[in-house]
Amino acid sequence: MADIVFDNVTKRYPDGYEAVKGINLEIADGEFMILVGPSGCGKSTALNMIAGLEDISEGELRIGGEVVNDKAPRDRDIAMVFQSYALYPHMTVRQNMAFPLTIVKTPKEEVTRRVEEAAELLDLKQHLDRKPSQLSGGQRQRVAMGRAIVRDPKAFLMDEPLSNLDAKLRVQMRTSVARLQDQLGTTMVYVTHDQTEAMTLGDRVAIMRAGELQQVGTPMELYNQPVNLFVAGFIGSPSMNFLPATLEGDTLKLPMADVQLPRERREAMGRIDESKPLIAGIRPEDFEDAGVVGGNGGTTFKTRIDVLEAMGSEFYAHFTIDAAKEELGSSEELRELQADAGGDAPGGGFDVVARLDQTSSARPKQESEIWINTEKIQIFDPESGRNLGVAAKSSKS
Amino acid sequence: MHHTRKEVTLWSIALAVVLVYCLIPVVWIISLSLKKPEDIADQKFLPSSISLENYEQVFSEGAFTAALRNSIGIALLATIISIVLAAMAAYAITRLEFTGKALILSGALAIAMFPPISIVGSLFDMWRRIGLFDTWLGLIIPYMTFTLPLAIYTLSAFFREIPWDLDKAAQVDRATPWQAFTKVMVPLAAPGVFTAAILVFIFAWNDFLFAIVLTSTDASRTVPAALAFFTGGSQFTDPTGAIAAAAVVVTIPIIIMVLVFQRRIVAGLTAGAVKG
């Protein structure tokens, strides 16, 4: 067991492309750290650098206080689970799991004992003498985990280990990964592109974009105090709605309504020019059917619901807010978020999603009155993408 | 796929034609080898009476058994050394980035395209000087020269099919590069190893040119070369029957080799390594 420290680590390929740009990250001993971001953000490269499968161009990587930049993977004492599982197809499950032990000439009895233990833990006992090709996807995934845990390494590295499983199994395995890490108490670095996995699994989550660390914090910190547009849009499902806005005194002018900001929130943002274009971010659950909330203040507006999705415990109401798209500016972060979410909605205006209570009387194709929780509106600077309400302590740079 | 009756018939006829065309010379040689020496010229396709006289004659001559021993030894050694070297070279070529990689591959192929006759003369002189003439090694070396490129090509095609993640997994699982190669890569490329081995073995086993030029005695003369030195029972009898018998005998190891290794060439050995 050991801590892992990235000290200004950069990965530069021979063609000059920087996959990881000088990241600083401290992963404590026994911590469950998630690296998350859209594809191509450098998270897998970062993980491979811990494993020793990628060279480090600049900076220092320390495992357990020891600089490992020039150490071969086998000398780093880390175990890794690959997205493809990478099981040895010509070996049985038992041989696969024993491989990391037999390769360093561990005594036979100990190998047997440890493999049996791991098989017990992962419920693989009855499959030990089968070949990987005879196993289902979920079983293969568990064998891959078993091969990692037989060793008692300094740290576990997981490269999207659940992404090849079907949705139901993924949720199930997610719980068992969390339980496993808790049982073993070993440092774990887990790479995923799935924000739900990131939110539910880790002690702390590190969000990456284009090779840079955006924000590191507990899932709730990231959710409630995103430092920039990218983090705000990436975390949360359905994702945060972004709308153009301007500020006049304490009043935030949104396309559909004027919102009176609480004094302390307005003060936290400091001086902002009256005409400066801003981006307001509102999470779906910060909307509500005005009828459900009752008349306890806040701002309401009327809109026509385009689509109403019944989720059982709640509704997702989609409606369109008329405003020119250009008003959001040309933020690189927003564009990337949209690409990650599968493209932009067609037509003019903004497609907004609101999460309404199951008692809501909203009906599709009909006018409804929607309430906004003004306490929770986040305000971003379109140029820098920075969240104006959050002190820029743990942001990039 | 569903085939109509007409298609099946046509295909069967075509197959039969090809099969007959390929097998007639083989049947003919077997028939010749089973004829009595005096019946050789009887102009009949099948022997009128079967005799093993030719086989007895072949094995009674020390030259043939010596040649058989040389053939087996030289072909096996050439195959083993060639495959070991080719496997390491192919692995390096598929997994490592180094300058001159393309040059090595095309250079290797160029060597294989060289007509052997163009180098055999100078090889004869060279081998005489350095004492490799009429030795096993003197034949093994040129055989390797001509089979290595093919073996490297075949094996690198197989190594390329093995997912990179397996290399990485082996590294993380604390295997040295050599262990990763021998315990993970080679077993997975086994079909390729056997394919290449068959090709190399057949080349070495059937070679006549190098064998006839670079050997002079029973110390290293292989069967194809030894056949050329066969004589009849007397000065006036034709050795056709004996040559046919010897030809049948030398074909048997090849058939056994191919049959044995063919079973090992199972497709889909890597199934289950990665998702899917």
Describe, in plain words, how this protein is organized in 3D:
The complex is a heterodimer of chains A (397) and B (276). Chain A is α+β, with helices and mostly antiparallel strands. Chain A folds into two domains: 4-229, P-loop containing nucleotide triphosphate hydrolases (Rossmann fold); 238-380, OB fold (Dihydrolipoamide Acetyltransferase, E2P) (Beta Barrel), CATH 2.40.50.140. In chain A, 26% of the residues lie in helices and 30% in strands. Chain A has eleven helices and 20 strands. Chain A has helices at 43-51, 93-102, 108-121, 137-149, 167-184, 195-201, 219-224, 229-234, 263-268, 290-293, 332-340, and strands spanning 4-12, 18-27, 32-36, 58-63, 66-67, 78-81, 155-159, 187-192, 204-209, 212-217, 241-248, 251-253, 258-260, 278-282, 287-289, 299-310, 314-321, 350-357, 367-372, 378-380. Chain A has a six-stranded mixed beta sheet with strand order 6-7-8-3-9-10, sandwiched between helices. In chain A, a hairpin with a 5-residue loop joins strand 1 (4-12) and strand 2 (18-27). The longest helix of chain A has 18 residues, at 167-184. Residues 393-397 of chain A have low confidence and may be disordered. Chain B has 276 residues and is mainly alpha-helical. Chain B has two domains: 1-51; 59-264, Orthogonal Bundle (MetI-like fold). Chain B has twelve helices and no strands. In chain B, helix 3 runs parallel beside helix 6 (136-161). The radius of gyration of chain B is 23 Å and the shape is globular.
